[in-house]
Design a protein that fits this description.
- It is a single chain.
- This protein is of the alpha+beta class and 140 residues long.
- Helix content is 28%, strand content 27%.
- A 6-stranded antiparallel beta sheet has the order 1-2-3-4-6-5, with helices on one face.
- The protein is globular and about 35 Å long.
- The N terminus is likely disordered.
């Protein structure tokens, strides 16, 4: 796992967290939340980092549970806000679906992302895809 942050000698590098997520490693979810919390310690209005943690947990969990491969998380704090991206190596795109009462707690992740993020999407790559969201630091 790799955490990176801007250092004094770097050229205008923005604070960033980058982590490899092991195949089927559910421990990565709380570990990633903790690392993100540290990255966002002084970022945004109250509550924004909590939303970022929740949405990041959803994307990380989806990548771990719905693929049989490793994934890579990148969280970048920039002048416009926070961008979190989880790239996996499976071409199948996630589906936004409305869960029914029989689903228990499953199937709500992308609905949370759609509801709480300022922007989100899926980008296809040569091998796999990246699911991302953005949050403005100042939004209420």
């Amino acid at each position: 796992m790799e955490d990176r942050a801007a250092s004094a000698g770097d050229h205008i590098q923005t604070p960033q967290l980058r982590r490899r997520l092991g195949r089927a490693d559910l421990r990565a979810v709380p570990e990633t939340r903790k690392a993100l919390r540290e990255l966002l310690r002084h970022w945004g209005r109250p509550g924004r980092s909590d939303i970022a943690e929740l949405l990041t947990s959803e994307l990380v969990t989806n990548a771990i549970v719905h693929t049989d491969r490793e994934a890579v998380l990148t969280a970048t704090v920039g002048p416009r806000g926070l961008r979190v991206e989880v790239r996996d190596f499976v071409a199948r795109r996630p589906r936004l679906r409305v869960p029914n009462a029989d689903d228990g707690t499953n199937g709500r992740g992308l609905l949370l992302v759609q509801s709480l993020a300022d922007a989100w999407g899926v980008v296809a790559h040569g091998v796999g895809k990246a699911v991302w969201f953005e949050l403005d630091a100042g939004a209420a």
